[in-house]
């Protein structure tokens, strides 16, 4: 029942990690922690079931020759610099192993009576027929303002009164309380959650008799984490995720955080101001921080720091963090003590990230090789 950190699947938009390093914060933090735990490389997780992806594919001039799955794979591959593919590979929320697990879990929940397939009143776009939800609002697929009522069989979760969709023990944190307003936001969802959606791409619900529908991607991202954990025989997967993402997906993943004794929990991380590092280069010159050490500060230390500073790192904090980072790097021992590494692993397994701001412990955790694309290296003495 070991702990394994996995990133909350990142939406597969038109960007690269070099352009948007903040998108890889959860990936980098998870890999750094797994390396310190001695868990080995894990896959990077990507969310491909998006309306934006549907639109990109529909509008692509080569849509008749390039399939949607291939397009998603190409877009993910382009996220990484040449020759820097993740050591653990990638896993998407439509990979066959994820889809198989999703159907297995859904069928089990249907047999238990937790989920149901029932006629449900919804709104369809009057122009394109996209299901816009239970209430009328503009279509996000084609932009049309008008909708019409429609009743069709859908996969739903009728939440029993008083059932919590998110609780404190759903977070993997040592003595750290999750934000109270996050618990409130997650609870503020309809009593009936619709778990089937109209998408061009996704986990098909045809085996359940729901033609033209896929599993809600907010449930699918949880299943992708469980599938990745199963590959590593990890019974305690931890999803690194921002507070905003957790608020958006938690309710829809409430029934999909447990499976066959495996329990998924969240580890919140804050935003990193990669887009506002004005003056960082000058600070590096003043404090004699080399380009390689600066890159390690940005790609390794700040993602870990964001798990401790969950409210987010501000630009004003960067100078102090850079000086602290330099102090820790200068304090690195030739050979990390086994007692220190054992205590570090205990903290990481418990979700206690206070060690990141302890110079002595951090100095022993810093890997030899800078991380620039999200794939962590094995630090000396961590195996």
How is this structure best summarized?
With 383 residues, the chain is α/β, with parallel strands linked by helices. It has helices at residues 25-37, 51-59, 68-77, 96-112, 180-187, 217-231, 243-249, 280-286, 291-308, 318-330, 338-350, 359-365, and strands at residues 3-7, 10-11, 44-47, 90-92, 116-125, 131-133, 147-158, 192-194, 196-197, 214-215, 236-241, 258-259, 262-263, 265-268. The chain is built from twelve helices and 14 strands.
> Which percent range fits the helix content?
25-40%
Derived from helix and strand composition plus strand pairing, the structural class reads: alpha/beta
Overall average residue pLDDT: 91
Q: Could you spell the SSE succession in H and E letters? A: EEHEHHEHEEEHEEEHEHEEEHHHHH
Instruction: Give the tally of β-strands.
Output: 14
- Sheet of most strands: 4 strands, antiparallel
Q: Tell me the Rg in angstroms.
A: 22 Å
Description:
- This protein is an alpha/beta fold.
- Helices cover 36% and strands 16% of the residues.
- The protein contains twelve helices and 14 strands.
- The chain has helices spanning 25-37, 51-59, 68-77, 96-112, 180-187, 217-231, 243-249, 280-286, 291-308, 318-330, 338-350, 359-365, and strands at residues 3-7, 10-11, 44-47, 90-92, 116-125, 131-133, 147-158, 192-194, 196-197, 214-215, 236-241, 258-259, 262-263, 265-268.
- The protein has a four-stranded antiparallel β-sheet, with no helix packed on it. The protein has a three-stranded parallel β-sheet with strand order 1-11-14.
- Helix 1 (25-37) links the parallel strand 2 and strand 3.
- Helix 4 (96-112) crosses helix 6 (217-231).
- The chain is globular and about 65 Å long.
- The two termini are 19 Å apart.
- Mean pLDDT is 91; it is low at 372-383.
